[in-house]
Every structure is written in structure tokens, then in C-alpha cells.
Write the C-alpha cells for this entry.
Amino acid sequence: MSVKRLARRPIVRLDGAARLEQDDRLTLEEPLEIRLHGEAIAVVMRTPKDDFDLVAGFLLTEGIVRQPADLGLISYCEQAQPPNLKNVIEARLADGVEFDTQRLKRNFYASSSCGICGKASIDHIIAQAQAIDTDFTVSTDFLYALDGKLRQAQEVFAQTGSIHAAGLFDTEGQLLSLREDVGRHNAVDKVIGKLVREGRRPPEKCVLMVSGRTSFEIMQKALVAGIPMVAAVSGPSSLAVDFAREANMTLVGFLRGKRCNVYAGAERIESPDEKQPHSTEEGDSNGEK
């Protein structure tokens, strides 16, 4: 059975003096409650589909599981009442894997509004997930091709223009996993979760490409998953840059066509002509939200 990811709503389209009433296709957004051994630990807003990938990635990037083998069964909750049958997921850990119930009741780092701040938060996360020590390089041509590859693989974006995407690429430019969601961090969790459910982690040498801006929580999730390089269509936050530098990660922003800014880890990007990467002007954010 196909999963509904689109919704239709009536709109009035204005074009000069013309006024046209019609339906428009929108990206579907619904809440998903995540339960661990019967206890609700989080509610995330997401686009339905790849829900099990989302939960598996969430549990890894939030530090609930340390490795894919720690994860047990994931299923839709049989006790959920209509219309929430597909909006509540029950996850269980593998036999012998312990978890701190009290910790789960405290706020996760996944929400940018949960009160995290500055250097203390960076140090806390890096203490739990070690800084990156992987050495490899990619070419500028490799980077410049990522935006187009990500866009070509976005099925829902082509129809709505209102959904984010995350794609994981190997150093040959091959797309390993792509997921779309109304939330950027959800898309990242889904990409990582796909691999976790296959019993593996992202390769040591890989690049995560995301649509929109790069925030602290996306860099956090990438580090916990062991992803050394993150690239984005738009710019990063100041805390995302600080995090990338402290964690020895490469962070690329405003990657559009053959232009980008490298905010951290520039040594991993080869520049054949030895010129400095062309920087976007400070006001070139195009009003990204």
C-alpha cells in the first residue's frame, strides 16, 4: 500500500489581474509519536513515509543506541487508536541493551528550541561522540555536482516545492541514500536510519548533502553517525560552524552551481588551481528560514 505524502488544498492563484481558483498540491505534515519499550519519548513533525528509518536514525543520532546491533524490533503501535494507527511507533532495543529511562524524560538535543546553548553543548556532545579523525579529500567538481544529484532524486519536491531532502554520497559521487521530509533533521535521521536498519553505519568517507540551511542539530546528528562532511544549499548557523570546527568536520554552505563557502575543514577539498574557494557575500542567504 502506498503511503500518502501529498495533500490537496483549494487556493486562489493571482497572476497580474487574473484570479483563478484551483487546487494545489502540498507536502503532507503529520505528528509521529515515538515510543521506546512502551514509553513515549518524543513527538516529531514529519512527512509520512520511511517512518521506521526515521525512528532508527533518531535513536542512533540521539545516542539511545550506539550501534545498529543495539536496535531491536520497530513496529507501528497496535494499541494506537484511529486515526493514529500510522502515527505511533513502538521501538524496542535488542536483548541485553540497557537504557536510562530518566534520561529519556529529559529534553533531547534534536529540537533547536530545547534550550541548548554554545560551547557547553558542543563539549557535551563531542565528549560522547568523538571528533572526526578520517582523512580524505574530494574535488571541487565532486562538490559542484551534489546539488543537481540531490534535486534530481527528490520526487516530492518536484511536485510541491515544499519539502526538504538529505542525501548521503560516497566519495565517488554515488548516492547511497536519499530521504525527503518536511523537517530537515527528520530527513537526516531517515537517511541514517535506512543504513542502521540494514545493520550498518555510514561509511567513514562520505558526504551528507542537505537542502536548506545547516543547523547545530544537523551537525550533531552527522557527528554521532560518524559523517565527516556536510554540505548544504544555504548557509549554516554560527553554532553549526563552531561545532564543525571543534569536531574536525568539513562544513560547506551556499553550494549552488559552481559556487560555495567552506566554513570548516577546507583541507578535505582539493582546489586544482590552488585558488581560494569563491565566497558568497554575507547578504546572499536569499532569506532562507
Remarks:
- The CA atoms of residues 146 and 209 lie 7 Å apart.
- The first strand starts at residue 6 and ends at 15.
